[in-house]
Amino acid sequence: MIYLIVCLFIILLGYIEILENSRVSASLYGIFVAFIMVAMAALRTNVGPDWQAYYEFYIHGAEGTEAGYHFLNDLFFEFGIHYNVFLLFINTLSLILIYLGLQKHAKFLIFPILLFYCELFLYFNFSGIRQALAISLTIYSTRFIITRSFWKFLAIVVLATYFHNTAIVFIIAYFIPFRKLTKKEYFILLLGFLLFSTLIFSIVNLLSGSLAAKAMYYLEFQERDPNIKSLFVIGTIKRTMIIVLVLFFGKKMLEDKNSIFFFNIYLIGFGMYLATYLISADIGVRLSSYFLIFDLFLAGNLLSANYKLTTRLLIATILSLIALYKITTYMAMETYTYHWIF
Predict the structure, then answer these.
(1) Alpha helices of 117-182 — where are they, by DSSP H?
(2) 3 state SS of 132
(3) What is the DSSP-derived secondary structure letter of residue 169?
(4) Helix ranges (DSSP H) in 277-333
(5) What angle do CA 174, 288, 127 make, to 5 degrees?
(6) Contact indicator for 239, 298 with CB cutoff of 8 Å
(7) Is a pLDDT exceeding 50 seen at residue 221?
(8) What are the pLDDT digits (tens) for 37-57?
(9) Is 38 left (phi over 0), alpha (psi -120 to 50) or beta?
(10) What percent of the chain has pLDDT over 90?
(11) Could you report the per-residue pLDDT of 145-161, keeping only the tens digit for each?
């Protein structure tokens, strides 16, 4: 129930933001919502599919994890700091980076935060917290793509790989154009994703060390959900919705080169998802999330590009329904039953 209450509260603030149309108020609302989300992530116990694994990392040492996470994990433990304080630090850092990215590149803030809250926040910040940090860092690195500061961008992405190896895939983002793609480019992308899907095992064999072992685990040894085809269809429909909204309401938004860039990034992520999910659902979600998270930027800028209040409210209502559907799917999972530490 806590998930739904917070979701409805964020939706309410989102409508207020649209009616007030004040950047100052939106920033204050965004900080307040981020504070609530950090508290939810930090004050839980035994919540999330990977809770036990990460708790054991903290108690027994994070051997086998990336160097950055290993360092933070062992540093906090050596000082005798409670695990939930460690979670507080991790999620505060993650949310600050996400918020800074949104504040710089999205005109409206609350509905983008809503989209983050109802899926990727729960998927990563409540479970895969190493990748939560990695994605937050790659979101922050976007400012250096826009200013064409390659070495600064690369430094942040490399830092992100110290928390999750998969962050290396985000280097692709620097080379995504700030213009609408041609039909020829769409065709080349389609062929590229089909080729990647076909050769994924060969690509993994070119890797080495723990990264290769983890990739092979997700490809061959991890248990596959018997409903994977149904989940793939549902996931595809969910991820298609933002594309539909952009095509219907985003004509003016796509006159801005940064918004075109965010849309292109999202399309790359969508292609990754389609190409890999049925082979390995975990790889499909983990790789594509670095790009699909740009639906946050698209949602914020889509609202600002439509000046009519009625159109903004319509978009907001559609986004709200999407968020409510997503949050109910997490509420139905036993591993997400919320337990406070007190």
Answers:
(1) 129-146, 150-161
(2) helix
(3) G
(4) 281-292, 295-305, 309-331
(5) 120
(6) no
(7) no
(8) 999 999 999 999 999 999 999
(9) alpha
(10) 70
(11) 999 999 999 999 999 99
Percentage with pLDDT > 70 across the chain:
91
What tokens does 310 get? 């009625």
The two structure tokens encoding residue 95: 């949310």
Supply the pTM of this predicted model. 0.91
Buried b (16+ CB within 10 A) or exposed e, 109-123: bbbbbbbbbbbbbbb
| Token pair 């992308």: residue | 189
User: Tens digit of pLDDT for each residue in 96-126?
Assistant: 999 999 988 888 999 999 999 999 999 999 9
Classified as helix, coil or strand, 203 is: helix
Q: Which residue has the tokens 């304080």?
A: 85
Bridge partner residues of 44 (DSSP)? 340
Backbone angles phi, psi at 340, to 5 degrees: -75, 155
Helix (H, G, I), strand (E, B) or coil at 44: strand
User: Rounded to 5 degrees, what are φ and ψ at 148?
Assistant: 55, 45
**In sequence order, which ranges of the chain are alpha helices (DSSP H)?**
2-20, 23-42, 51-60, 67-78, 83-105, 110-116, 129-146, 150-161, 183-205, 209-216, 228-249, 257-276, 281-292, 295-305, 309-331
3 state DSSP class of 143: helix
